[in-house]
């Protein structure tokens, strides 16, 4: 079980007490979603921080001012975070926000709004590896133990925000129609510029080729790693032990291959295939 010392249980999902409070969760439930709001929704460790850089750049015509001057979690805040009420009022329209919420826990006003959602999925095995290192560095999460032990917790949903499979399934079976765009971390790694064009089209925006080049350049892993407003270097050691891992750690696809033994992979595949059975959801990485 995830520890009661470090986590709140929101509709059964373990979420860290440091980042969420009973008040912030109440605020979220009654938050008034506007028709031009844009949400980037992710299961943790799937590209949230990346989108906290990309969205302001795309929405401001490639202007670097927000990403160079505003810390990522205030620039594009988490809907469910403890600081949300204090930053929501300062967002200018169209408001860009991120969330790890499953579909059914979005604010009541979201469902009848025209707000758009960009859902970013990442290979579950790479999300697991990224989450393992994050659990090592983040002092507000339970110690992950060994990689094998952490895999068991991950498969049981005893990690922050519960199971990857529940999250992905909840956001596939919606009636959002053309209000939702599905992209993957892997497509972004493969051809970021092309994905940015898809996002622009989805948001009904245009951008010059030069501006798009600038956005692509500033959203690359190496640029974000150097930007103290995006790389979590300003977070106190009280919350994150950066000697254990960087927040922007490797930024690659397939690191799972360096961590899964054949036995662990077989066990993992059996559980995940069973959970995804009948969902009709397939990903390119299923064949790996
Ligand atoms: S969190 O805690 O849920 O907000 O984490 P999240 O931001 O979703 O995921 C962190 C992982 O995303 C990687 N990342 C990037 N990869 C490639 N390019 C860019 N620009 C980029 N920005 C963030 C980050 O390095 C984490 O993955 P790992 O595999 O741990 O490196």
Write a short abstract of this structure:
The protein has 288 residues and is of the alpha/beta class.
Query: What are the secondary-structure elements, in order, as H or E?
Result: EEHEHHHHEHEHHHEHHHHH
Structural class: alpha/beta
Low-confidence stretches: none
CATH class: Alpha Beta
Distance between the termini: 31 Å
CATH superfamily: P-loop containing nucleotide triphosphate hydrolases
What is the 3D shape? globular
State the strand order across the main sheet.
Answer: 4-3-5-6
Number of DSSP helices? 14
* Hetero ligands: 3'-phosphate-adenosine-5'-phosphate sulfate
Number of domains: 1
Radius of gyration, in Å, reads: 18 Å
The largest sheet is: 4 strands, parallel
State the CATH architecture. Answer: 3-Layer(aba) Sandwich
**Helix fraction by DSSP (H/I, runs of at least 4):** 40-55%
Give the beta-strand count.
Answer: 6
Q: How is the CATH topology named?
A: Rossmann fold
Beta-strand percent range:
5-15%
Mean pLDDT: 96
What does this structure look like?
With 288 residues, the chain is an alpha/beta fold. It has one domain (7-287): P-loop containing nucleotide triphosphate hydrolases (Rossmann fold), CATH 3.40.50.300. Helices cover 41% and strands 10% of the residues. The chain is built from 14 helices and six strands. It has helices at residues 22-30, 48-59, 65-69, 72-75, 84-88, 108-111, 124-137, 147-155, 164-172, 185-190, 192-202, 209-218, 221-226, 262-276; strands at residues 7-10, 13-16, 38-42, 96-99, 116-121, 180-184. It has a four-stranded parallel sheet, with helices on both faces. Strand 1 (7-10) and strand 2 (13-16) form a beta hairpin. Helix 2 (48-59) packs antiparallel against helix 12 (209-218) and helix 11 (192-202) crosses helix 12 (209-218). It is globular and about 50 Å long. The protein starts with 6 loop residues before the first strand and ends in a 12-residue tail after the last helix. Bound molecules: 3'-phosphate-adenosine-5'-phosphate sulfate. 3'-phosphate-adenosine-5'-phosphate sulfate (PPS) is lined by residues 42, 44-50, 126, 130, 133-134, 219-221, 224, 248-251, 255.
């Amino acid at each position: 079980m995830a520890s009661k010392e470090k986590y709140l249980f929101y509709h059964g999902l373990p979420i860290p007490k440091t980042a969420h409070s009973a008040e912030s969760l109440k605020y979220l439930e009654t938050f008034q979603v506007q028709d031009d709001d844009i949400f980037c929704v992710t299961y943790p460790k799937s590209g949230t921080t990346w989108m906290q850089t990309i969205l302001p750049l795309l929405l401001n015509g490639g202007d670097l001012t927000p990403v160079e001057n505003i810390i990522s979690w205030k620039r594009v805040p988490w809907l469910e975070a403890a600081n949300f009420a204090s930053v929501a009022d300062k967002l200018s329209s169209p408001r860009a926000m991120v969330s790890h919420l499953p579909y059914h826990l979005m604010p009541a006003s979201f469902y009848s709004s025209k707000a758009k959602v960009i859902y970013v999925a990442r290979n579950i095995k790479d999300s697991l590896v990224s989450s393992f290192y994050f659990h090592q560095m983040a002092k507000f999460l339970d110690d992950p133990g060994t990689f094998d032990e952490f895999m068991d917790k991950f498969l049981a949903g005893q990690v922050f925000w519960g199971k990857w499979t529940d999250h992905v399934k909840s956001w596939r079976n919606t009636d959002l129609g053309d209000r939702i765009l599905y992209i993957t971390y892997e497509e972004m790694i493969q051809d970021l510029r092309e994905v940015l064009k898809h996002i622009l089209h989805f948001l009904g925006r245009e951008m010059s080729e030069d501006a798009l080049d600038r956005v692509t350049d500033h959203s690359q892993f190496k640029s974000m790693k150097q930007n103290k407003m995006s790389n979590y270097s300003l977070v106190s050691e009280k919350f994150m032990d950066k000697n254990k891992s960087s927040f922007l750690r490797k930024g690659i696809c397939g690191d799972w291959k360096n961590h899964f033994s054949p036995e662990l992979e077989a066990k993992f595949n059996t559980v995940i295939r069973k959970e995804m059975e009948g969902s009709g959801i397939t990903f390119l990485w299923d064949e790996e």
